[in-house]
Design a protein that fits this description.
This is Protein N-acetyltransferase, RimJ/RimL family. By secondary structure, this protein is of the alpha+beta class. It contains 9 helices and 12 strands. The chain is globular and about 65 Å long.
């Protein structure tokens, strides 16, 4: 079927609706039961990016001018990561196996190469045709991920009560958005604790963390209309952050299209500074976050998270909290000339 590729510079309302149509159809087909994106969430994904990144967008139209495929290329411009790019490529289920995805991927690969990128990565559902689609185009599997879901109604009672268990030498503190000024530098230093997180063979580059960057990340979450919740364990001996966990609440659902994802929160990274590991702080922090959710955000009914298959410790922590397997994905990577 004839198609027309169009690179978007300033997405219009019609572009957003077409993008929403493609992604909603693909999500309903590939991950039935998952909440569909709102128009607002789609609009935000096309227009909101961090200060050290850029987006390149393509929308493919069919013969009757309806949207049939999309591509979102994210180009990092930060030092240590300016050789990397990631792409999210989506084809409407009714238009697959017609060459649309192949042509669109070729356009994206060429654009990434023109930007001087050396690695292009993407993520697909494990065990689906998406894997062979990438493998036959020189992408190689670099990291396998397990996605887990927790229904807040199923949190084990013993876990909910864990925040009341003393952890000598540490105390919990919480905030929303950017960290308090007194903790900003310490929190940034703790982010380095994620440096040894298993990443398989996926090229992730080096990120320089400081107070300005953690504030920028919080600002980006706010610009997306989401809420960023943080729990941290503070070392009482010196007042520094010994570990932390982060979670985002989705933007309020729109009513214009009758869909929304307000009931699902996303668990982000959890890290403990190497010097403070072995005290059970990770489990303590995550259970404190779940208790806060049940008390302060009754509209949230479930939490979803992803963890590298090699990260056995965090998978075990999640299982102890009541998380159950949801799906598996594979990050593929292409080496560009």
């Amino acid at each position: 079927m004839p198609t027309k590729h169009r690179r978007l510079t300033s997405p219009t309302a019609d572009d957003v609706r077409a993008w929403h149509r493609v992604h909603s159809a693909a999500l309903a087909h590939d991950r039935p039961g998952d909440p569909l994106p709102t128009l607002a969430a789609v609009r935000t994904s096309l227009t909101t990016v961090g200060r050290d990144s850029r987006l390149a967008l393509w929308l493919v139209h069919g013969s009757n001018d309806e949207g049939v495929a999309t591509a979102r290329l994210r180009l990092s411009d930060s030092a240590g990561r300016d050789h990397l790019a990631t792409v999210e490529l989506t084809v409407h289920p009714a238009h697959r196996r017609m060459g649309t995805g192949s042509r669109l991927l070729g356009t994206v690969v060429a654009a990434a190469a023109e930007e001087g990128r050396r690695r292009l990565s993407t993520e697909v559902l494990a065990g689906t045709p998406g894997e062979s689609f990438l493998a036959t185009r020189d992408f190689v599997p670099a990291l396998r991920l397990t996605w887990q879901k927790l229904s807040l109604a199923d949190i084990p009672e013993r876990i909910v009560k864990l925040p009341d268990v003393p952890h000598p030498g540490f105390r919990l503190t919480a905030w929303e958005g950017a960290p308090p000024d007194a903790l900003a530098e310490s929190f940034a230093a703790a982010r380095v604790g994620m440096a040894d997180m298993p990443t398989g063979n996926l090229a992730v580059g080096a990120t320089r963390w400081d107070a300005e960057r953690v504030r920028m990340i919080a600002e980006l979450v706010a610009r997306r209309g989401e809420r960023l919740l943080n729990q941290a364990a503070i070392c009482e001996a010196d007042g520094t952050v010994a570990g932390y966990t982060k979670l985002t609440l989705p933007a309020p659902a729109e009513t214009e299209d009758g869909t929304g994802a307000g009931a699902r929160a996303n668990q982000l990274d959890t890290a403990v500074v190497p010097a403070h590991r072995g005290h059970g702080l990770g489990l303590w922090l995550k259970s404190a976050m779940l208790r806060h959710l049940t008390d302060a955000h009754p509209e949230v009914t479930e939490v979803v998270t992803s963890t590298a298959d090699d990260n056995r410790h965090m998978l075990a922590v999640n299982a102890a909290l009541g998380f159950r397997p949801l799906r598996r994905t594979v990050a593929y990577q292409l080496t560009l000339p």
